[in-house]
Design brief:
heterodimer; A: mainly alpha; ABC transporter involved in vitamin B12 uptake, BtuC; 16 helices; 2% strand; B: alpha/beta; Rossmann fold; six-stranded mixed beta sheet; four-stranded antiparallel beta sheet; 32% helix
Chain lengths: 357, 266
């Protein structure tokens, strides 16, 4: 121990330091170069980058395609097209904020849509009850994911990779690989089609499903930013050890997040039935990856604790705008996928840069 | 300065904690008096951290008794300890980097809006939290805060330590436990934290200070608890023992009973 013969009183080396500025924990920022300020800006407002991309994309496609692109009907069509991915994106955002990932969102959605359809149409249950059972099944599926993650300490990627296959197999078994036709749903359980009904204003056509999605974004934004639960979700994803030491029961938070996410998958199932009319066990195959795409482009960090819920809405809209705009420009579909892939890589690269403060 | 008749705030006896074949705490005793700074020193692996975790609720001991103000306590989590008025500054700081200063100060004890907004909608009272966070930080002389909404990860090591110390000092009712609060700090910043520790004591709280820095320990501590091989082997005072004595006892080079002042000089 080198210190054994040092003097206990204020040591000489400290007296020298005393003549320096006495400020400790000085929180002022000095004038910084533009790039640094941009860095801090994006760090503080992670939604800014995808928002800028969205606006630029709209401008570019308007100049290429013209009026037709900016027409309220086309704009509302994009919103309709992103409704299901948007709702699944809410679920995915919550999971990714806790530094997890959920590959099973699409499978939960399809499974619960089949449950809603079969209970409502084939078993003749009151439609509201069939819907409620479907929503409950979604929450239950999420709870199973949450239990596997918290009780057995399995990585979320592995857990949901497993349950993705399990839920999808259950869906095929339970549905008998049969599609429930739209007319049958209309006759027995019209409430399942409610999300497909629309209201028109100023030439735009918005479905109740889309409005529901927007309402859910606002509700989850409130929960994440204005309740203690939301702060704890961020803290859990940011640094679970620190969160635990601060007195947060991180396992409880994780389970609640998986339950809520499963529930939202079931809500997405309701929107899915409204959008495609029938209940198909084959629908939404790629939905899990699309939801991750929306979250990542929306500026949410895959490392957890960083990102905003409206970023995901913007991320979903960016994908929708690019696909719609490229289609209207007459570009081959394969270039839509190409562009989306490019956007993902740019978004993750940007996140890596932003995280280095 | 403390006297022997002073009230014991925190007392532990016969604490045991085993991890498989490893015994981290081996029948350790611990006594903290009201309004004192008690330093806990010991070599790496002596079981200081385990002892501190047992006192702060982060670890449940296998055996032994802990008394707070003479009443037995049984902490299951750091939350229990916090409710009982024991705050801890952990070595790894336990702050959430991406949350802001105000959020971090109130993490796990958020204030809700009064009335229906708080009760039904569980709405956070951000204004009250921000204002109180500012008041608490300046009360402790920690700033010059320009922006309480700054993410903690944008702060320097010293500033983060300031936030962590402020959090525990601001909310503690009885005891503040600080695990290596100056370890990551520069000379100036260490000085501020040491002064802060004395301030906290002067406000009537009891402080447990874990540190490897002997000059710091001998400067601020009223008494020094020396831990070795999972047990308390001596309690000394800076005026009875020299730093070399303390280090010798801590490393096993000296039998504490061989010292003229005895193993429990304080």
């Amino acid at each position: 121990m080198a210190s054994s013969n040092a003097k206990p009183a204020t040591a000489e080396h400290e007296l020298v330091a005393a003549s320096a500025s006495g400020d400790f924990a000085k929180f002022t920022a000095e004038k910084e170069p533009l790039l640094t300020r941009l860095h801090h800006f994006f760090h503080r407002y992670p939604t800014a980058a995808p928002a800028i991309v969205l606006m630029m994309a709209i401008l570019v496609f308007t100049s290429i395609v013209g009026e037709r692109f900016l027409h309220p009907f086309n704009m509302s069509l994009i919103v309709q097209q992103v409704t299901i991915i948007g709702i699944l994106g809410i679920a995915q955002t919550l999971i990714i904020l806790t530094a997890g990932i959920d590959l099973s969102v699409g499978a939960i959605m399809v499974l619960t849509s089949v449950i809603m359809g079969r209970f409502g149409v084939e078993f003749g249950l009151p439609p509201v009850l069939a819907l409620g059972l479907g929503l409950f099944a979604g929450a239950l599926a999420g709870y199973i994911n949450g239990l596997l993650v918290t009780l057995f300490r399995l990585p979320p990627f592995i857990v949901t990779l497993g349950t993705w296959n399990i839920f999808f197999a259950l869906n095929l078994w339970y549905s008998g690989s049969q599609t429930i036709r739209s007319q049958a749903i209309d006759a027995a359980a019209p409430i399942l089609h409610w999300t497909g009904q629309s209201i028109e204003m100023f030439g735009a056509r918005l479905t109740y499903g889309s409005l529901m999605m927007l309402a859910l974004f606002v509700i989850v934004w409130y929960a994440l930013n204005w309740t203690a639960w939301g702060r704890h979700v961020y803290a859990t994803g940011d640094d679970p050890a620190a969160a635990r030491l601060a007195g947060i029961r991180t396992d409880k938070i994780l389970r609640s997040v998986y339950i809520v996410a499963g529930f939202f998958c079931a809500v997405a199932a309701w929107a899915l039935i409204g959008r495609i009319g029938s209940v198909s066990p084959q629908a939404g195959m790629m939905a899990n990856l699309d939801s991750i795409t929306a979250v990542v482009i929306g500026g949410c960090s895959l490392f957890g604790g960083r990102g905003s819920i409206f970023g995901t809405l913007i991320g979903a809209l960016v994908v929708g705008v690019f696909r719609n705009g490229l289609a209207l420009s007459g570009v081959d579909v394969l270039w839509q996928d190409f562009t989306v892939g490019l956007l993902i890589i740019i978004a993750v690269g940007l996140d890596q840069w932003i995280r280095k403060v | 300065m403390t006297t022997d008749t002073q009230k014991l705030v925190l007392k532990a006896s016969g604490l045991v904690k085993r991890y498989g074949h490893v015994t981290a705490i081996d029948g350790a005793d611990f006594e903290l008096r009201e309004g004192e700074i008690l330093a806990v020193i010991g070599d790496n692996g002596a079981g200081k951290s385990s002892l501190i975790k047992a006192l702060s609720g982060a670890l449940v001991p296998d055996a032994g008794e802990i008394l707070l103000d003479g009443k037995p306590i049984n902490f299951k989590s750091p939350m229990d300890a916090r409710k009982a008025g024991i705050e801890t500054v952990y070595q790894n700081l336990a702050v959430s980097p991406s949350l802001n200063i105000s959020d971090n100060l109130y993490l796990g004890r958020e204030l809700l809006k009064p009335g229906i907004l708080g009760k039904v909608f569980k709405m956070l009272d951000r204004k009250a939290m921000d204002e109180q966070a500012k008041a608490k930080l300046s009360e402790l002389g920690l700033l010059t805060i320009q922006n309480i909404h700054q993410a903690v990860e944008t702060l320097s090591g010293g500033q983060r330590q300031g936030v962590a110390v402020a959090r525990s000092a601001a909310f503690a009712k009885h005891v503040v436990i600080m695990d290596e609060p100056t370890a990551a700090l520069g000379v100036k910043e260490s000085r501020r934290v040491l002064n802060l520790i004395k301030d906290v004591r002067d406000r009537g709280l009891s402080v447990v200070l874990i540190s490897h820095n002997m000059p710091h320990v001998f400067e601020v501590a009223d008494r020094i608890h020396i831990h070795r091989l999972g047990q308390r082997v001596a309690v000394v005072k800076p005026d009875t023992h020299s730093m070399s004595d303390a280090v010798a006892i801590m490393t096993g080079a000296m039998d504490p009973n061989d010292h003229p002042a005895g193993a429990f000089a304080a």
